[in-house]
Amino acid sequence: MVSTGSNVNWPPIEGIISDLDGVVYRGSTAMADAIEAFTRWQKAGLPFCFVTNNSTHTPEDVVRKLRGFGLSIAPSEVVTSAITAAELIRANYPQLTRIYVIGAPSLVTAMRDVGLEVTDRTPEAVVMGLDRDITHEKMRIAVEAILNGAVFIGTNPDLLLPTASGFEPGAGATIAAVAAATQVQPSIAGKPQVPMIETALSRLGTNRASTIMIGDQVPTDIQAGKRAGLATVLVTTGVPMRQDPFLMAPDFIVSSLREIEVSAARAAQARQRRA
Predict the structure, then answer these.
(1) For 182, how many CA atoms within 13 A lie in the half-sphere containing its CB?
(2) Please, which of 82, 131, 232, 268 could form a disulfide with 107 given CB 3.0 to 4.6 Å?
(3) Alpha-carbon gap, residue 222 to 192, rounded angstroms
(4) What pLDDT shows up at residue 9?
(5) Longest distance between any two alpha carbons in the chain, whole Å
C-alpha cells in the first residue's frame, strides 16, 4: 500500500540511494528542498549514494555540479550507467574487446577505462547511451553490427529526461529505434535493472532492510529499488507518473524530500558502523 501525506510511518532509515535528474536537480536548476535534505542528512552522518541512468556525466562531473549547488560529495558516492555498462561487459562478456559506442565522451571513457577498444570496425558489441549528436550514420553502423552478431547493450531505457524548461528524449528513445530495426532487445545496464543498486549498496555498507531508494520515475527508479529489495520513495518533482498495472508501485510518495523522516539515532548508528 502506497503511503502519502504528512502522517507517514517511515521505516528505520540508515542509508539512502537516490536518483539525480528530476530528484536533486532538473537540468541545470537545483531542487532546493532536495539539496537542503541531503545537506541535513550528510551533517547527521547518514550515508547516501547517487545512482544515475545519465551516461553523459562522469562521477567527477556530478561532484562539480552538486558542489555548485552547495552539496559537497565524493566521486565514490556516484554510480553512473556508463560505469555500470563497462562493468557489465567485463563481467558477462570477458572475451569481447572491440566496442562501438553511441553516446557522450563519458561513455567512451568508461569503456576505455576498463581496457576496451572503442571502434567502428567489426565491433563485437554495441553500447548505446544518450547522444545529443545522434545521426542516421551512427545508427546504421550500430544496426549493421548487431545484425552481424554484435552484443547489444543500452545504458538505460529512459524515454524522457526532465530539463529546466520541460523534457527531452532520453537514451531509451534511440535505443528503441535500433532495437526495432534489428529485432534484437538490448541488455540494459542501468535502472530498472539492479546492478547499479547493488554497487551502491556495497559502497554504503548499509543493511538492505534499512536502506531506501528515492526516484522520480516508476518504470526505472522504483522498479530497480523494488527488485533490489529496498523500500522505495517516489518524489513527484520529475517525469509525470503514469499508471501501469504491470509495474510495482512505490512504497511511499512525497512531493518534497523534506517529508522523509530520518531518525537522528539511526543515522548515528549507521555512522558508527562505518567508522
Answers:
(1) 24
(2) 82
(3) 8
(4) 85
(5) 59
pLDDT tens, residue by residue, 47-70: 999 999 989 999 999 999 999 999
Rg (CA), the chain: 19
Residue 159 has phi, psi (to 5 degrees) of -85, -30
Distance CA 204, CA 30 (A): 24
Answer yes or no: 19 catalytic.
yes
- Percentage with pLDDT > 90 across the chain: 80
Q: What is the SS3 assignment for 172?
A: helix
Q: Are 133 and 107 in contact (CB under 8 A)?
A: no
Residue 80 φ/ψ, nearest 5 degrees: -105, 165
- Of residues 19, 131, 158, 221, which has the active-site annotation? 19
H-state helical runs in the chain: 32-44, 59-68, 81-92, 105-113, 136-147, 171-182, 195-204, 223-227, 264-274
Q: Positive or negative, the Cα torsion across 113, 186, 81, 159? A: positive
In terms of residues, how long is the chain? Answer: 275
Sign of CA dihedral 30, 33, 38, 44: positive
125-128 and 117-118 strand pairing? unpaired
Q: Please name which of 65, 83, 101 lies closest in space to residue 199, comparing C-alpha atoms.
A: 83
Residue that is written with C-alpha cell 561532484 in the block: 63
Q: CB burial class (10 A; 0-12, 13-18, 19+) of residue 98? A: middle
Q: What is the dihedral angle through the alpha carbons of 115, 113, 78, 102, rounded to the nearest 10 degrees?
A: -90
Task: Kindly give, in sequence order, each residue whose CB lies less than 8 Å from that of residue 243, ignoring residues fewer than 6 positions away.
Answer: none
- Tell me the one-letter amino acid at 25: Y
Q: Write out the three cell numbers for 112.
A: 576505455
What is the rounded end-to-end Cα distance, in angstroms, of the chain?
36
